[in-house]
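Prompt: For my understanding, could you write out one protein's sequence and backbone structure tokens?
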Amino acid sequence: MSTLLDIKSSVLRQVQVCPSFRRKTEQEPETTSTDSQEPPTGAWKPGDGVEFFAHMRLILKKGDGRQGLPCPEVLLRSGSPAPAEPVDPNRGLRALTQEEMEMLYEEALYTVLHRAGTMGPDQVDDEEVLLGYLQQVFGTSLEEHTQAIERVKKAKAPMYALKVSVMRAKNLLAKDPNGFSDPYCMLGILPATGAPQEPSGQKEQRFSFRKGSKRSGPLPAKYIQVTEVKSSTLNPVWKEHFLFEIEDVNTDQLHLDIWDHDDDVSLAEACRKLNEVIGLKGMSRYFKQIVKSARANGTAGPTEDHTDDFLGCLNIPIREVPVAGTDRWFKLEPRSSASRVQGDCHLVLKLITTQRDTAMSQRGRSGFLSYLLLLSRVLRFEHRVEEPNSSSWRGELSVAGTTILCLHGAQSNLSSLQLAVLHWQVSSRHHQTRTLDYGYLLGLLEDIQAHWEEAASLPQEQEESLADSFSAFSEFGLRLLRQLRDYFPATNSTAVYRLELLLKCLDKLQLFQPSFEICPFETELNMDIAAALKRGNREWYDQLLNTKSPREQPGPQRLTGLIELADIIYEDLQSCYGVYASLFHGILKVDFFTLTFRQLERLVAEEAWMLTEELSSKMNLEVASGLFELYLTLADTQRFWSCIPGRDSRSLALAGIHTPFLPAVKLWLQVLRDQAKWRLQGAVDVDTLEPVDAASKHSSSAATASLCLSHIQELWVRLAWPDLAQAQGLGTQLSQDMCEAALFYTELLRKKVDTQPGAAGEAVSEQLCVVLNNVELVRRASGQALRGLAWPEGAAGLEGVLPRPLLSCIQALDEDLKREAHTVTAHLTSKMVADIRKYIQHISLSPDSIQNDEAVAPLLKYLDEKLALLNASLVKENLSRVLEALWELLLQAILQALSANRDVSADFYGRFHFTLEALVSFFHAEGQGLPLESLRDGSYKRLEEELRLHKCSTRECIEQFYLDKLKQRSLEQNRFGRLSVRCHYEAAEQRLAVEVLHAADLLPLDANGLSDPFVIMELGPPHLFPLVRSQRTQVKARTLHPVYDELFHFSVPAEACRRRGACVLFTVMDHDWLSTNDFAGEAALGLGGISGIARPHVGGSVRAGQPITLHLRRPRAQVRSALRMLEGRNNKEAQEFVKKLKELEKCMEADP
């Protein structure tokens, strides 16, 4: 019993097959000829089918990556460097002449030698380092370099100017009663002679435009500019711009005052007049006018500080202005230590040159052009030195190069927009001669975009130059997109990222298109991109076709190349959808996938139509195999389109392409059927009928068979034939072929195991266990495979509902394989029959002195040992089959033992009853074995009844005989007819009244199709009614619906009617004049429940009671078992009861 307790719900650990097969329902008569079982030859080259199925696995593997829509994560497999893009030295800026080069060199040296302002921490402040860097960039000798420097030093120094932008102020003091101020700024340049003196008094004094002294003389301001007055605010916003000439960048300084305005005089007008006057005297006169315009604080003296109007000041030395300019907040300062100020002022300062003594300036070359040439020279030098063979360079210049460009840009007064434009123009041109990182180029375009709205429009010449650079770059980008697959392969994540950045660059170009007065593009750029993609698709396809399947080759040779071409196109479409489509649509709103799919699908469809037409007259097995493989790829292409929401494959050029492939598909499926049998034959031949490994319980041939079935089903799914009528025909034939192959395999197994020598005395054959597991594995694999062949039945076919031909095929094969499994199971358990009988005989011959458990122990030990072997060798389903077979063997063995021992002691039957219950517990194994319902069914019921009856007395057996009759239920209620009666007990007369009313639907037992029925009534059991004789009705001639209406009385005590088993038995007979009467049926009515016995009888006639309808039946086995039990007993009462029954039967047959 321990073995079964260890059995868990272990599921078949077989190959998990995916449905797909086919079988021919075998209706032909059985044959013994071995020739009819051999697979036919000639469908493919003869062999064991290994090569054929290996090729089929390659086809299936090809389809594994074609399920559903592709994901970018699956396609992007390589992070290696992107392929090199084409470069052309001629696409860069034109080469400079020697004279132009010398002029540019002079311009760069002039910029370094006359730099002004403060160098930043990330800039080079060493003049020798900067000059040495320029010598390397221009490649001059030391002598040439020294001479050039001397010439530049002799030139005039440039004229400097300071650009000042007064942007805003914040957190100023409130000077007005309303809690605000009306601030404005006065600013100007203090020359070196007006520099503040060292403090000599008790209070520190600072210069102020509105502070004067009678002894001081004219104002020391070169220029005075004033902003607008911003009323009632402490956080004014001005955004006003000024330009001041600088005489000495080392000593001059910028001075700015902020005042609170309190009268109606226009200070701005006064300042403008002041700046129109030449000479310090005129400036002093007009400045006095400005001073008068402000509130003078009563009669305060001229030297008194006007602290109530003053809001703060700034003094910024020109030499401290950064070279690149500055854009920052400055904290306001008091004009003396007694002043109280607060707040900050936001200024933008930039030091530029207005006159330069260089050849380029003298010839009218703008700073814009000179910067462009200098940047181009620096970029070529830096890229050549730093990254000669890489496309990942992002324009990172050396510190010296950045410093020189910063100096030149600032001195040339180039705006942020102009600098961004220049860097784009030079870098985009340089990219076409030596590849750069697209992220760097995209950043340059974003810089232009960031400054585009803020700056004034470019001069027309510069805008035209920018438009030309856009056109050149877009032309270069379109050329790359035409060869998209070469330069940006979808499997290379690095290349795809570069493509994404390129598309973003092209998208940026479109954003500038409406801003140009001179449009750089003749048409919309995205239209040009779509045209370039179409042209590139066609060029790629033509090149592929000429390489793989040139049209000058014969059709059969072209077929192989066209298969490869179709596969390449499918993979390309996957790349288009999974990688390229989202980039083009998300960035440029170009539907690249639809454009490409439509174009390539149409081209490959045209080739397929032409080739199938050419090969239709040359059909053979090789051509059929190639066409089958080609069709699978074309069908995958159609399904790919259909998988995308909103797409309909009926509009494709491939729609209807299946029609010319039908003959090839039919021929290939025939080859498949034959090769499957060859493959199974070869697998069984080499099978040693041993488990594949420790975890499996089947042999190698079963795994091969399951795999073959799985491959066939997968192939059918991939085929997905679109024509429903044709699909039904193909699927039906394929299912029949698969069933035939499965049965062919089981027959091969049976033959092989029959030829294997068995071990002498071996009760459990390991080979038979393996064969049984093989059959079960193939049964499950074939069932799954056949269900995978489902095809829709007509337009109204329901999804998930198997077609009727396929369902019939599945059911027939399942029954056949289950029969085969039961056959092997019977063969396996037959080796244990002799042992089981021996142990059952041991139980029957055990003396009464031995305890029941001791008598049963040898049998249970034997079963435990054998089931331990079976449990280790069989899968769960087969173990259940073997348990059921063993259970039936045990029941039959016990029944035989009982029939061989008659008239023995009650202990004998009690021992077997104990044995039966012990076996039930053993085989149930606390729910881990067979279910109790199946254990206690069938032969068990018969055996249990026999044991129970053997333990009963004779009278109990007789009572059981009648109880069994009462328990009988007609299996078919109308088969033997019905009998209507009324019955009650008359207590006053102590008699039982039985009225036979009529019968209906009796069996026709005569040749004329009718009967001559009569009814016999008897009370039983006889020992309850010993003096009562049977009675009968009249015979009703030639009818199946007799009407009797006869009343009978039986004088019996009421107490006898209440006893166990008391009943009246109605037997309907057919009267025959020339032969014995025929039995038509019987029915029993228990007396315990009739009126007068179960409840007192209420007054009224007998005929007033409700009639009872009894369904006639024939005696069942359990009734006859009690009779057989009585026949086997030798006591007088049993023999008399049997004799009386036989006499009654004779009376039934006699003439009434």
In short: The chain has a mean pLDDT of 81. The two ends are 62 Å apart (CA to CA). The CA atoms of residues 257 and 313 lie 4 Å apart.
